[in-house]
Amino acid sequence: VIVSSVQRQAKHSFFWQFVFHTYTAAFSLINGNRTPKAEQYSLHQKQLFLGLGATLYSACVGALPLAFVNRYALKSSLMQLIVRKLLPAPLLGLTSAFTVAMVRSPEFDNGIEVMDRNGKVIGVSKKAGEKAVMETALSRAVLFGTTFFLPEVLMYFVQRTRFVKNHRVLGPVRMFIVMSVLAGMLPVSFSMFSQCGEIKRADLEPEILSSTEETEFFYNRGI
Questions:
Q1: If DSSP codes are grouped into helix, strand and coil, which group holds residue 112?
Q2: Residue 115, by phi and psi: left (phi above 0), alpha (psi -120 to 50) or beta?
Q3: How many Cα atoms are found within 13 Å in the side-chain-facing hemisphere of 221?
Q4: 71/88 Cα distance (integer angstroms)
Q5: How would you write the pLDDT of the chain (223 residues) with one tens digit per residue?
Q6: C-beta atoms surrounding 74 within 10 Å
Q7: CB of 119 closer than 8 Å to CB of 217
Q8: pTM, whole model, 2 decimals?
Q9: What whole-number distance in Å separates Cα of residue 182 and Cα of residue 151?
Q10: Which domain range does residue 9 map to?
Q11: Would you state the torsion angle of the CA atoms of residues 122, 128, 129, 131, taken in this order, to the nearest 10 degrees?
């Protein structure tokens, strides 16, 4: 995250964002829902292909603004502000969510287990799988989007108030701020949605509801 946030060349930005999204893709794959019925898909060729494609796509999208600016030599202060300060945060948030959705796509393609309040498995639901993946993708977008955006705001005030007068110190200060924001956002992101997700009876498939009278169901969201 820190290295990706300080790149100024498109090639370097692509490489480091590729490394970053590869890590997050692997993390999402390992920490997804482990429904036994879907285990055969956990290392399926299609899932690995989608993960690699999502990683390459996300790295390209992240590096595209820098490539555009460098290619056409757009050096105006407004363009530099947009490309280097405003765009990285929403782009990283969106691409992080996209990577999660692609890597864990078998969960909403094949479904995940849903349980009653006693822990008894009622069935395998695609709607629960979709809800679990979307919640995780949203939490990942908030985590990395905020981690890129908030340090830029804080650094703006640090420079404007001249709190740090030595320009050589700005680099370490920036790294410290990014690390602090990331450390603070990790528990926030993981606690946005409960690890044991809940889904209402009306949101489940009819074939699952026919075997029980329960009104509330639960599933493992993953992280």
A1: strand
A2: beta
A3: 20
A4: 18
A5: 888 877 778 888 899 999 999 999 999 988 888 775 545 554 567 778 888 999 999 999 988 888 887 777 667 777 777 877 788 889 999 999 999 999 998 888 888 999 988 888 888 999 999 999 999 999 999 999 999 899 888 888 887 777 777 777 778 888 899 999 999 999 999 889 988 899 988 888 888 888 788 888 999 998 8
A6: 13
A7: no
A8: 0.86
A9: 10
A10: 1-220
A11: -160
Tokens in use for 200? 């209402």
Domain count of the chain? Answer: 1
> Other CB atoms closer than 10 Å to residue 182's CB: what's the count?
19
List helix spans (H) across the chain: 2-5, 10-30, 45-72, 77-81, 88-103, 105-110, 126-160, 170-190, 206-209
Euclidean distance between CA atoms 214 and 196, whole angstroms: 17
